[in-house]
Amino acid sequence: DYKDFSPHVGFAWDMFGNGKTSLRGGYGIGYERNFGNVTFNVIQNPPNYAVISLVAGSGVSPGPITNSNAGPLSGSNGTIALPHTSMRNVNPNIKTAYAQLYSLTFERQLAPRALLSVGYSGSKGSRLYSLSDFNRPGYGNLYLNETTPFARLNDQYSLYSFRRNSDGKSLYNALNVGLELQNVGNTGLTLSSNYTYSSAKDDLSSTFSESYYDYNVGYLDPFNPSLDYGPAEFDNTHRFSLGAVWNIPFAHNTHGVEKQVLDGWELAPIFSARTGFPFSIFDCTNAYETCPRAFKMAGTSGIPLNGKEVAVPGAPDTFTWIPYFGSAGNPLFDSSYYNPVVGVSDYGPFPSNMYGRDAFRAPGQWNMDIGIYKNFKISERYALQFRAETYNTFNHAHSTMVDYINEVESASGVLTNRFGHRNIQLALRFIF
User: Pairing mode, if any, of strands 162-181 and 114-133?
Assistant: First the structure.
C-alpha cells in the first residue's frame, strides 16, 4: 500500500532561555501491519477446504466418541449430506489500520534536583481491524422476510461472513503529572511519582474479542458497530505510581570489613494503584446464538455500575460485588426483550434501556514491590551485587472478575475472586 503517508513532527522549546522551563510536543501517524491470520484463514474456504459443525440430533445421529479423523462421517452404516460449511470472508478492499499520535508536555525545574512535568497525550485509531458475522441464523427472517426458522442471509454457508474488515475506531486521552526528586537532602534518595487520568474508548478492543470478558465474537450488531462504542477493555481512569531508589549513605566513609558489610546497600520500593477495568454484563435468557447486554429495569436505579465488596459467609476469599437484585429482592434488570420477528433476543434494534458496552467496573488494585540490593566492590573493574526482590510484598489480596452469569436472573450476582500472593526472588549479579 503506497498511500500510507506517515509524517512525524516534534519540537522542544526552552521557553525562557535559562534551561529550566520547556515545552515539548509532537504529532505522528503510524500504521499497523495486517496480521497473517486475517488473510491466511481464506484457505479454509470451499471448494478446497470445508469447516463444518455437527450437532447430535440435527442431521447426525447421536453416537459414541470416535477416534476416527472423520468422526461421525466415517463408517459404512449409511450416508448423510455434507452440512453447510463456514466461510472466511476478507474485504478485498480492506484498508490499513492507522493511529494518529499527539502529545504536549510542560516541564519545569522547581529546584536544582526537582523536576515537575504536566503533559497531555492522545491517540485516535481509524480503520482498525474488525471481525463481524453478517450471516447469523435469523438474519434471513429479519432482513429478507424468509419463513424458514432461523434462515441466514446466505443459506449456502453457515458462518459465512466472519468478515475481516477495517471498521474499528478508538480514541485515547490522558493527563500525566510527574514529579521527580533527586538526592533528597543529600541522603542519596531519589523519588519519582506519576499520576495519570485517562480515557480509552473503542468499539472493539481486539479483532477476535479474545478478552476474557467478551461474551460474543466481534460486534454485537455487525450492521451497527457504533452500538459497541464505549470504554475499552483496558480503560483505566486513574493510575498512580511512586518509586524510590535509596543509596544508603551512612557507611560511605568506612573501610575494610566494616565497609564491605555496612556500605553499598540500596533500597528500591515501588508502589502502584489503579482503578478497575471495565466489563459488560450479558443476558442470555432469550438468546439463541448471540447474547445481548443486560437491560435496565424500568422504575429502578438499575444494576450498580460498581459496588462495595461484601464477604459471603462460609465462602472465604469470594465476594458478591455487584447485586442484580434490590433490597426487596426485586430484579434490577429486565429479561423480557426479544426481537418480535425472530422470537429471540439476538437481534436489534435493541431497546434504549440496554446497558452500554463495558458500562461496569471491576475493583481497583494496589501493590507494593520492594528491592533490597547489596553491592560488594571487588576492584575498580569488578563488583558483586546481591539482589533480594519481593513482589506484592504485603501479600495483599486483589479482587478480580471470575466469570459471567449466563442468565442474569441468577441470584448469585457477579462473582469476584480474591487473589494475590507474595513472590520473593533472590539473585547474585557479577558486574564487570
Answer: antiparallel
